[in-house]
Amino acid sequence: PPQPFCLLVEPLTDESPEAFDVHRQQIEEAKARGDFVAIVSSAGPGGRPPGDKGMTYYPNEFEARLVEASRLPSRLGNKSLLDDVFKSAMGEVWGPVVSAEEEGYTGIDLAM
Which helix (H) or strand (E) is 9 found in, with range? Predict the structure, then answer.
């Protein structure tokens, strides 16, 4: 089975110390469960201490969710759920289509 994925959002730098305590507690609980811990952080790589083992930082939730989808099993026999999404999003490519006006069609002739 895939490793559970826990997404947490790091408190903003001006949040109360209690908010950081709650955040740290959530991290410890997720690590104790054996979750993959993804943390969305607005601080750049130089703005926080080096990543703790078992935690990965992301600049936004979208990127973290892409990683989560890449870790989930495929429902269609591909490498991952993310691979399913990419392959199903490809669709068909249609070339240019001539509009009816360009073919000389001017509308319905009501005088038939």
Answer: strand 5-9
